[in-house]
Specification:
Blueprint: E1 2-8, H1 14-23, E2 27-29, H2 37-46, E3 53-57, H3 69-78, E4 84-89, H4 92-102, H5 116-133, E5 136-139, H6 145-156, E6 165-172, E7 183-186, H7 207-214, H8 217-239, E8 244-251, H9 257-271, E9 276-280
Parallel strand pairs: 1-3, 1-4, 2-3, 4-5, 6-8, 6-9, 7-8
Helix pairs in contact: 1-6, 4-5
């Protein structure tokens, strides 16, 4: 049985994720108390194997019950039930904006917690141990709904037997660092196609931009050195049992140089039969590349 547990910050997109998981064949249940996680193993056994993909959401809506979450996960491990834990996160400012726009009440508001910012801070403290334990951490601060859907499908539609997922993503430093990144590479040292008028509105996915970037000896050498470093590091991460590795490549605006590098790194890993998701967080935003 494939068992996925979704948790994370309120407002980070858990309901959208569970909708996508349902679309790709998971039996999904929202707002499950942690103490009931073991019951889903019984459900699988009762079904005779007809339900072979289960996804549940466990989060701060359970309030005090959530404090038993880690012990419930440990109980699953003791019973040798495999699971994958997905943690959805977003920046505080983004969460504040989403709650205000949606006019929703934060589940921790009330009692001694009087403001939305206090509720977000309290939830972040409550979820800290779960975030550290997660197999996958996705920061949705800069994601559109379609980008989130694409990443969920790419992550969970593959066969469960493929242990590590490598995400190669491009981003723009002007929009902030991706908090989920394990490795961050800065390619702002390279010549910028933004200053070439005919390339300014194009992206690093287009051949004229790639050709411009890759024509420089320092570009080709940097790419080769980064690929060599990744080749060295990947087996070490696998040996340590890491389930997800996020490689983030940044330039100024996330449109030209970082896109070309993330695409090149990801494509090479795919050729080596590594399980890879390639994404470009800021590619379609206006600004320097």
């Amino acid at each position: 049985m494939e068992f996925v547990i979704v948790t994370g910050m309120s407002g980070a997109g858990k309901s959208k994720v569970i909708d996508v998981l349902e679309d790709i064949g998971f039996f999904c249940v929202d707002n499950v108390p942690p103490q009931m996680l073991g019951k889903f193993i019984e459900l699988y056994k009762i079904s005779g194997g007809s339900i072979d993909r289960i996804a549940v959401v466990v989060d701060a809506r359970g309030r005090e019950m959530f404090r038993d979450f880690i012990s419930s996960l440990e109980e699953l491990s003791r019973s040798r039930q495999a699971y994958r834990l997905l943690f959805l996160d977003a920046e505080d400012g983004v969460l504040l904006k989403r709650f205000k726009e949606g006019r929703r009440k934060h589940p921790l508001l009330g009692g001694s917690i009087l403001t939305l910012q206090e509720a977000i801070s309290a939830e972040r403290r409550l979820l800290q141990a779960a975030r550290l334990r997660a197999d996958y951490v996705m920061d949705t601060s800069q994601m559109t709904v379609s980008q989130l859907k694409e990443q969920i499908v790419s992550t969970f539609v593959e066969e469960a037997g493929q242990a590590m997922l490598v995400q190669c993503m491009s981003f723009g430093f002007k929009y902030g660092l991706p908090s989920e990144a394990d490795l961050v590479f800065d390619v702002r040292c390279l010549p910028n196609p933004f200053y070439v008028p005919e390339l300014r509105e194009r992206t690093g996915l287009e051949e004229p931009v790639r050709s411009y970037i890759m024509q420089f000896p320092q570009t080709r050498e940097l790419l080769a050195r980064l690929q060599g470093l990744i080749d060295f590091l990947l087996p070490l991460y696998v040996e340590e049992g890491k389930s997800q590795l996020v490689i983030a490549v940044g330039c100024t605006g996330g449109k030209h140089r970082s896109v070309a590098f993330a695409q090149a790194i990801g494509s090479r890993l795919q050729e080596k039969e590594v399980r890879v998701v390639i994404s470009h967080r800021d590619k379609d935003k206006a600004g320097m590349g």
